[in-house]
Design goal:
Blueprint lengths: L1 H16 L2 H20 L4 H16 L1 H12 L5 H26 L6 H16 L1 H8 L3 H24 L3 H23 L4 H21 L10 E8 L2 E2 L4 E2 L5 E3 H7 L1 E8 L5 E10 L2 E11 L6 E7 L8 E9 L4 E10 L1
Parallel strand pairs: 4-10
Antiparallel strand pairs: 1-5, 2-3, 5-8, 6-7, 6-9, 9-10
Helix pairs in contact: 2-5, 3-5, 3-8, 5-6, 5-8, 8-9, 9-10
Length: about 325
């Protein structure tokens, strides 16, 4: 045991003298982790697991520091713990941000969620904002903490456990709501009965709002590598024909139309998605497709619509959605005379 202590003490002393190195490490390692995942997908599970282990440390920080003190006689200075927390926030946010930037449909409500993540990442690297504005505000810090964990779980669960997007979303949302429990309990005042009722109401509202807003949350590990609205698809080679932005009504009714998508998904992930055909904002068809992860260029699948209403003129969209309703991308075309 003393040998472990002797080895760890110099590292603790170094980190205590230069605590900002931890924050810098978090920023650099987060970006590096994403780049490694992009270059070699087989590393994705390992890197995602490291992220989750970091969060286990963060969530059990008090218990683990007491255990280190009791078992190894190691006392971790409070400033070091604060910078370690900041490091995990930075590492997590800069790991997940590139995923969300890629998967966001920017002309939809998803832009708000990803922009919020970007703002959180900015706050995490600006010490005056993080320590003087965010950290002293308990509810704001709790929201920051929950948002970061939510984004991390949305990204890592499909990579590690090959969970489908709806499962990952439910688990991530449930974990974020549970994480909010202690902070909300500490802010509520009043008699025990009313306090607990108010707490349960707040948690239910938080969970309900998170589920209602799921269409605004990008599916972190699913994105379109290629997409086309076309008159033909080569089924043997799984290739789309010429992409169309406009099509005549006569041609549409005579030949129908394909919506072709190549969707990047993590290796081992099997997911049901939907091509939702909409005319002037109204859903007219919903076609399920099964996709399988692992192909770098994306899993190629398509739907074909042959029956169109007589008044099919105007703006059409094919919204590519997960089973939970999260938007992967949108294909647009217009039907003209």
């Amino acid at each position: 045991m003393p040998s472990w202590k002797n080895r760890l003490q110099p590292l603790i002393a170094l980190a205590s003298r230069h605590p900002r190195l931890l924050a810098l490490f978090g920023f650099v390692s987060g970006l590096a982790s994403f780049l490694l995942v992009e270059r070699k997908e087989s590393l994705a599970s390992l890197i995602a697991l490291v992220m989750l282990v970091s969060w286990v440390w963060l969530l059990l920080e008090n218990l683990l520091t007491r255990s280190l003190s009791r078992w190894l006689g190691l006392e971790l200075p409070p400033p070091l713990l604060r910078y370690a927390t900041q490091m995990i926030h930075q590492e997590s946010l800069f790991f997940v941000l590139p995923f969300f930037f890629i998967t966001t449909t920017w002309n939809s409500g998803q832009a708000a969620f990803t922009s919020l993540l970007g703002l959180a990442a900015l706050v995490s690297i600006v010490d005056p904002l993080y320590y003087r504005w965010l950290a002293p505000r308990r509810l704001a810090f709790m929201a920051f903490h929950c948002l970061t964990l939510f984004a991390v779980l949305l990204t890592t669960l499909p990579l590690i456990y090959q969970l489908a997007t709806p499962q990952s979303y439910r688990l991530a949302l449930g974990s974020a709501v549970l994480l909010a429990f202690p902070s909300l309990l500490g802010t509520l005042r009043g008699q025990n009965g009313r306090r607990w009722l108010a707490l349960l109401g707040l948690l239910a509202a938080l969970g309900g709002a998170g589920w209602w807003a799921r269409a605004w949350v990008p599916p972190a590990t699913l994105w379109l590598n290629a997409a086309a609205v076309t008159l033909e698809v080569d089924g043997r080679n799984r290739e789309a024909g010429a992409s169309l932005k406009r099509i005549s009504l006569a041609q549409l009714q005579a030949r129908g139309l394909y919506a072709y998508t190549a969707i990047h998904a993590p290796r081992g992930l099997n997911e049901r998605i939907y091509h939702v055909w909409q005319h002037a904002g109204r859903e007219v068809d919903r076609i399920p497709l099964e996709i399988h992860g692992g192909r770098q260029e994306g899993y190629r699948a398509w739907s074909r619509k042959q029956r169109f209403p007589a008044n099919a003129l105007g703006r059409w969209e094919v919204r590519v959605q997960t089973e939970a309703g999260q938007l992967i991308g949108v294909l647009r075309f217009r039907v003209v005379e």
